[in-house]
Amino acid sequence: MSALFESFTLRDVTIPNRVWMPPMCQYSAAPEGPSTGAPHDWHFAHYAARATGGTGLIVVEATAVSPEGRISPYDLGLWNDAQTEAFRRITRFLREQGTVPAIQLAHGGRKASTDRPWKGGGPVGPDAYGWAPLAPSALAFDARHPVPTELGVDDIQDLVGRFADAARRALAAGFEVVEIHGAHGYLINEFLSPHSNHRTDAYGGSYENRTRFPLEVVDAVREVWPDDKPLFFRISATDWLDDGWTADDTVRFAADLQTHGVDLLDVSTGGNAAGVRIPTGPGYQVPFAARVKAETSLPVAAVGLITDAEQAEKILVNGEADAVLLGRELLRNPSFARLAARELGGEVRVPEQYHRSI
């Protein structure tokens, strides 16, 4: 049996294989009106295609816990009943295909209120459905981004509650896994990193203070998320900066997250500073996942230019990760899992309508 096509059980949820789809924003939701932040036909078709292609777990793109938490005005949200109801169509179909539906809960922080990437991705104001971004400190992401409003302690506690509320809605919408977005320079990553967190109160300064808000979010979500369902956390294992969050911090934090009820660390890197030179290449982020796996008992998923079946299989066989997340490759090829199973001699569920393709 191919390692890539072995099932993986976390709590009471069994994922049929280790080919997983990471959250990738589609920037395709309505920016205003009654359907703001709700998935529609594009999102259904996008996720359904990867499910029929045999993907074991699909993490729905960064979904904001509040309107101002969206990365762009065109992002998904999970702060009202209309959004919750719209997601049910997607989760129902994914489960029917044997795919585990997951969702990433997020807040964009100082990188929020930006345009769609194909429109340049720059900050947008009220004339383009934008708003004033929020952050742990009044530090702009770069020269073209506005200085964000520094969150007060009451605001921080409100956001903790919003993450919990979104997790409740995720359960009502039919998701089996929740992932908290703590990576890529968005709000939680901003709190973690000394590069972006210059606070002098209980939420800044020391490692313990900078991890306080992320762990409060984890605790609040874990309290409302059922004991039989897994909780993931996505992290940028390094800022690739001398004054930022480091791989050593990640290993330490992984142990803390596990103590607080996190079941798997989704390991990425970067995104918290502009103009950083990152040495990219095939599997360039895998060593960070491998280190967490080697130095803690927390399961990990690896991501980052994993593009072919043999490469993915080797990561698992070598014990570098427990699962792999294929982003761009699944955008290019929704049926990657089916083709990889044929190549590696694994088994994957194929819809009856597609049996002639086996």
Structural class, from secondary structure content? alpha/beta
Estimated helix fraction: 25-40%
Counting copies of identical and different chains, the oligomeric state is: single chain
Q: pLDDT below 50 for ≥5 consecutive residues: which ranges? A: none
* Strand percentage: 5-15%
Mean pLDDT: 97
Query: What distance separates the N and C termini?
Result: 18 Å
Radius of gyration: 19 Å
Tally the beta strands: 12
Form type: globular
- Number of DSSP helices? 11
Biggest sheet, strands in spatial order? 3-4-5-8-9-10-11-12
Description:
With 358 residues, this protein is an alpha/beta fold. It has helices at 41-52, 81-96, 153-172, 187-192, 207-210, 212-224, 247-259, 286-295, 309-317, 328-332, 336-344; strands spanning 8-10, 13-15, 19-21, 57-64, 100-106, 134-135, 149-150, 177-182, 231-236, 264-268, 300-303, 323-325. The strands form three sheets. The protein has an eight-stranded parallel barrel with strand order 3-4-5-8-9-10-11-12, surrounded by seven helices. The protein has a two-stranded antiparallel ribbon with strand order 1-2. The chain has a two-stranded parallel ribbon with strand order 6-7. The longest helix has 20 residues, at 153-172. It is globular, with a radius of gyration of 19 Å. The mean pLDDT is 97.
